[in-house]
Amino acid sequence: MRSANQSQRRRKRPLLFARCSYQKHHLLGPCHRFSSIIYRPAIMSSRTFFVGGNWKMNGDKKSLGDLITTLNTASLHDETEVVCGAPTVYLDFARSNLDARIGVAAQNCYKVAKGAFTGEISPAMIKDCGVEWVILGHSERRHVFGESDELIGQKVAHALESDLGVIACIGEKLEEREAGTTEEVVYAQTQAIADNVKDWSKVVLAYEPVWAIGTGKTASPEQAQEVHEKLREWIRANVSEAVADSVRIIYGGSVTGANCKELGSQNDVDGFLVGGASLKPEFVDIINARA
């Protein structure tokens, strides 16, 4: 039988989640799903560090060719997985010219294999270019082009069924962070992705606070670690212990050569999705953040 002191200590054990408003918003079901999520001490991760470069709608054959030469001739940390997200029209160019040790990703795909969908590309077309990855759910797809959580989930499902690796993006806007709803937003986005994943070994989650993308503002290492840790515990509670331990959660949002080492030192930050800096020579420094 526990003593009164033991019971008191047990009641004071800190919960990872200080509040629970999920039931009110009907995002993820009843609050008791989170009541058993307990803070876990940090342990050294065995997950392979992952650095993605999202070139977005930038570059031409000359400038991208110069960048590719820089990457091909650079000394890159051999324990870091590197993937470059090229514009659609340059997927074949990037895959044909990048060293085989560097992967290539498309920046989007549609939810079906073919059809009358002007301007879209399918996973089958991406694979036909020899490309192995696709970025889905990026904030610019969500907030500029109006893609919903449901559509992103459907895209994730079809890409995985087509044997593409998926870099699945989530993240809150500034007003959502200021309103204290960061957790609700990223959990709802993650739920829509998780509902469509059968094999998590092909998925990398990219947490990108929208307010930090291309603004020069960066989440502090502590802010990034806090969200990554809570997200990992959500996965532990709602997917499985094994997936929580193995899935890579990377950070995106104004990552540079100057801040990458401190961000990359956080236990639950398993790499980066890099925008503007991935077009510059400093991308090599970011790739080598854990070298």
TrEMBL record:
Keyword Magnesium: no
Catalytic activity as recorded in UniProt: dihydroxyacetone phosphate = methylglyoxal + phosphate; D-glyceraldehyde 3-phosphate = dihydroxyacetone phosphate
GO CC terms of this entry: cytosol
GO terms assigned for molecular function: methylglyoxal synthase activity; triose-phosphate isomerase activity
UniProt pathway: Carbohydrate biosynthesis; gluconeogenesis; Carbohydrate degradation; glycolysis; D-glyceraldehyde 3-phosphate from glycerone phosphate: step 1/1
Domain of life per record: Eukaryota
Matching Gene3D superfamilies: Aldolase class I (3.20.20.70)
Catalytic EC class: isomerase
Keyword terms, alphabetized: Gluconeogenesis, Glycolysis, Isomerase, Lyase
GO-annotated biological processes: gluconeogenesis; glyceraldehyde-3-phosphate biosynthetic process; glycerol catabolic process; glycolytic process
Keyword ATP-binding: no
Record EC number: 5.3.1.1
Subunit structure: Homodimer.
Family membership noted in the UniProt record: Belongs to the triosephosphate isomerase family.
Described purpose of this protein according to its UniProt entry: It is also responsible for the non-negligible production of methylglyoxal a reactive cytotoxic side-product that modifies and can alter proteins, DNA and lipids.
Protein name per the record: Triosephosphate isomerase
Organism of provenance: Oncorhynchus mykiss (Rainbow trout)
